[in-house]
Amino acid sequence: MKDFAGKIAVITGGGTGMGRALAQQLVAQGCDVAMCDVSSDHMQASAEVCREHAPQGIRVTTFQCDVSDAQQMDAFAAHVRDVFDVPHINLLFNNAGIAGAGSFVADDRALWERTFNVCWYGVYHGCRAFMPTLLKSDEGHIINTSSINGFWASSGPASAHTSYSAAKFAVKGFTEALITDLRINAPHIKASVVMPGHVGTSILLNSQQAVLAAGHNDGGYTLLKMMGMNPSSMSPAEVSAAMQNLGEAFRDNAPTTAQAAATMILDGVKAERWRILVGQDAQSLDELVRKDPENAYEVGFMERRSSAPEP
């Protein structure tokens, strides 16, 4: 798929970050876009940005849903078919994700599974819901967002990171296996796994809102623990303020912007690369893990990571 003009793309998690940037760049290249998100306000903002950059006649539609819910994703797929009035799509970006619930041992089971279900089952449900419409296309491409935590199950030696990492490993393994599955059973469809490093998105800010909306009032404490902090003596107001500051710093101080990440992903799709590393930090970490996998979770590995030259 060397260009996106005249194609139809579906993007989960389109309300902010890489999802919004992907939608904006795709419509600018003549692609119709359908996006979903849990936040209708975020989606409305994304739709307005897209329409500002879209050539005349390009269609943009939004749908509010939770990607971890199979029935809601099936409803999203039905919405896309109805709005575009065609039996096919060409591009599926399973991009939605949240962070949280780092410890399998110490964290609440429901909160752990909330993170896992969004980050893994969101991809699975997306592929299930839209596979029939991809099969009806003349060419298709599935792009599943994993993470550097899909090949390095850690956020450092001082904090647990099991739920997010387990989900992102599942996304990576599923997509790699899908390459052969598609080659045998649907050779007109390609698949790519995206592994971003630190990209300037609102994932931490959105994650706190998502876990609170799901009724997990301790979500902020869990997120701070996952980031290596000790919130045990903090009040709820202090936790909320700390999460806000941390989320804004993660978004604003990243080495790779969401727009730059989206460009790297779309360039990778055009080049038919099945493995798309996003950011120099992702590339250098991938090289370090491959060189020394036995010590990837030792304290000294982080020191080598900090001092490693960029590839």
Describe this structure in words.
This protein is an alpha/beta fold and 311 residues long. It folds into two domains: 8-278, NAD(P)-binding Rossmann-like Domain (Rossmann fold), CATH 3.40.50.720; 285-311, no CATH class. 52% of the residues lie in helices and 14% in strands. It has helices spanning 17-28, 40-53, 70-84, 109-135, 162-185, 203-213, 219-226, 236-252, 258-270, 280-291, 299-307, and strands at 8-12, 32-37, 60-64, 91-94, 140-145, 189-196, 199-200, 256-257, 275-278. The strands form two sheets. The protein has a seven-stranded parallel beta sheet, sandwiched between helices. α1 (17-28) runs parallel beside α2 (40-53). The chain starts with 7 loop residues before the first strand and ends with a helix.
Low-confidence stretches: none
Distance between the termini: 28 Å
Secondary structure: number of strands: 9
Number of domains as seen in the coordinates: 2
Report Rg: 19 Å
Key structural traits:
single chain; 311 residues; alpha/beta; Rossmann fold; 2 domains; seven-stranded parallel β-sheet; two-stranded parallel ribbon; 11 helices; 9 strands; 52% helix; globular
Give the SSE map.
Layout: E1 8-12, H1 17-28, E2 32-37, H2 40-53, E3 60-64, H3 70-84, E4 91-94, H4 109-135, E5 140-145, H5 162-185, E6 189-196, E7 199-200, H6 203-213, H7 219-226, H8 236-252, E8 256-257, H9 258-270, E9 275-278, H10 280-291, H11 299-307
Parallel strand pairs: 1-2, 1-4, 2-3, 4-5, 5-6, 6-9, 7-8
Helix pairs in contact: 1-2, 1-9, 3-4, 4-5, 6-8, 7-8
